Amino acid sequence: MAERDYEAEYERYHSSKQAIAHRAMRNAARRRAGLKKGDGKEVDHVEPLSSGGSNSEANTRVVSRNTNRVKGNR
After folding, report:
1. Residues 71, 47 contacting (CB under 8 angstroms)
2. Which of 8, 55, 34, 52 has its CA nearest to residue 44?
3. Inter-CA distances, 2 with 5, 16, 37, 55, Å
4. I need a surface site. Which of 12, 16, 58, 61 has the fewest CB within 10 A?
5. Domain residue spans in the chain?
6. What is the Cα–Cα distance from 23 to 25, expressed in whole angstroms?
7. Using CA atoms, how far apart are residues 43 and 30, in angstroms rounded to an integer?
8. In this structure, what is the dihedral angle of CA atoms 67, 18, 21, 57, given to the nearest 10 degrees?
């Protein structure tokens, strides 16, 4: 089994301008919702950012981490 090249993976997927912009939008939504690290809650975008959804309050809701992960990009 080959070892993962985390640096190359980051360069490929996480450092693109679009990924950085989406991460900033998710972080802003967490701050607006008043969530803290480790609280087990996440901000769910009803229409995902990757599908053209917005970061507006009408498009976000607070859900458990499990609920958000099961939903995925739907």
Report:
1. no
2. 55
3. 9, 25, 33, 38
4. 58
5. 6-71
6. 5
7. 6
8. -50
Structure tokens of 48?
Answer: 């995902």
User: What is this structure's pTM?
Assistant: 0.66
Q: Residue 9 burial (CB < 10 Å; 0-12/13-18/19+)?
A: exposed
AA identity, residue 6: Y
Taking only the tens place, the pLDDT of each residue in 19-66 is 888 888 888 888 999 998 889 999 998 998 788 888 888 999 999 999
> Quick check: 25 and 2 in contact, CB under 8 A?
no
